[in-house]
Amino acid sequence: MINANRLDAGFLKYQSEYEQAAIDVLRSGWYVLGKQVESFEKEFADYVHSKYCVGLDNGLNALKLAFRALGIGEGDEVIVQANTYIASVMGVSMNRATPVMVETDEYFGIDPEAVEKAITDKTKAVLVVHLYGHTCRMDAITDICKRHNLKLVEDCAQSHGSTFDGQISGTFGDIGCFSFYPTKNLGAFGDAGAIVTDDEELAKKIRILRNYGSQKRYYNEVVGENSRLDEMQAALLRVKLSHMDELNEERAEIAKRYNEGIKNPLITLPPVSDRVKCVWHQYVIRCDRRDELAEYLKDKGIGTIIHYPIPPHLSQAYEYLGYKKGDFPLTEKYADTVLSIPIFNGLTREDQDMIIDTINNYR
Ligand SMILES: *Cc1c(COP(=O)(O)O)cnc(C)c1O
User: Is 248 in the pocket of ligand 1 (CB under 6 A)?
Assistant: First the structure.
């Protein structure tokens, strides 16, 4: 059986480095917010070419704190693409701001024309999601945000290292939000996240908010939260980050083999813009008979996942926003036809070949 994902395969690649880092933390006597977190923040800021990085406990809280630090809350609207993972939308609504969904484009990114049409006098920000590792059309988006004086937040949970016109995702707007959940391209061994920004004030605000609203112990400036990153995850992330280019390169090679090898008229391959370096968080094919294809692959020993079967505007959680089926035809069509086939660090060439052959034999 080839699983849809295998996290241990990524671990085994650099096993001794991870184990040494873990032992060092265990023996250090310091476990939450410390030298490892500080070093990781510096190294990750360097990696994305950003001035500041603040380590956090997960990606959802990175989004939540980003909007909170930007002062976005009740009565404010934030435009977000309808085809995203629901956590993106929660980062907005947890601040009591109103998520305003818009249609996706052919690359699964936010559609800039749809953004422009959705702007009202309540709109305060745009949240773009570089879904599956493919950067959104950032030239058009940054232009819209400038013209309408809107804040721009990037959900980079799936795009560590992706670029648009050579610029790395997370650095186009006010704040870039990252998740290091174990399945992500830069995955920890537990929950972790971070924000990056070039704005010193925003970085400082989020640094204070993550630790009960205090810079100095027992002096609380605001009602903060506990969104701290721990030393163990930071130390393990530093190991992985040092191999990040190699890890993304391995995913790109698998994607290239799929792009060249999969030839089946029933299947649409994932489109990539020539202005984008995609980091292939997922390899998402489309098929009208998607559920049947998934069943067929399962019978042949190949695991797949649907990212995502229910778009946020149709989920029970967001019923109160009043959307209905048919509001976003392309998003809904994708939800009914997308299928993610295995792509992960450590997926063997034999398994890749078997996946290609099996998909090509589907009738
Ligand atoms: C994983 C993910 C998140 C949430 O990150 P967590 O660390 O799981 O909280 C947010 N947005 C997107 C697009 C994601 O894929």
Answer: no
Q: Which atom of ligand 1 lies nearest, measured to the CA of 58?
A: 7
CB 43 within 8 A of CB 36: no
Contacts for 8-14 with beta carbons within 8 Å, 24 or more apart?
Answer: 9/344, 9/345, 9/346, 9/347, 10/187, 10/240, 10/247, 10/344, 10/345, 10/346, 11/189, 12/346, 13/243, 13/345, 13/346, 14/239, 14/240, 14/243
Q: Which atom of ligand 1 is nearest to the CA of 88?
A: 11
Measured from the CB, is residue 50 less than 6 Å from ligand 1? no
pLDDT tens per residue, range 255-279 = 999 999 999 999 999 999 999 999 9
Of 128, 156, 158, which is best to mutate to test ligand 1, by the most ligand atoms within 8 angstroms of its C-beta?
A: 158
Q: Predicted confidence band at 350 (pLDDT cuts at 50, 70, 90)? A: very high
Domains and CATH numbers, the chain: 7-241 (3.40.640.10), 244-360 (3.90.1150.10)
Give residue 325 CA to ligand 1 midpoint distance, Å. 24
Residues 69-115 pLDDT 10s: 999 999 999 999 999 999 999 999 999 999 999 999 999 999 999 99
Report the separation in Å between the CA atom of 59 and the middle of ligand 1, taken as the mean of its atom positions: 5
Q: Give me 228's structure tokens.
A: 């701290």
In this structure, which residue's CA is closest to atom 7 in ligand 1? Answer: 59
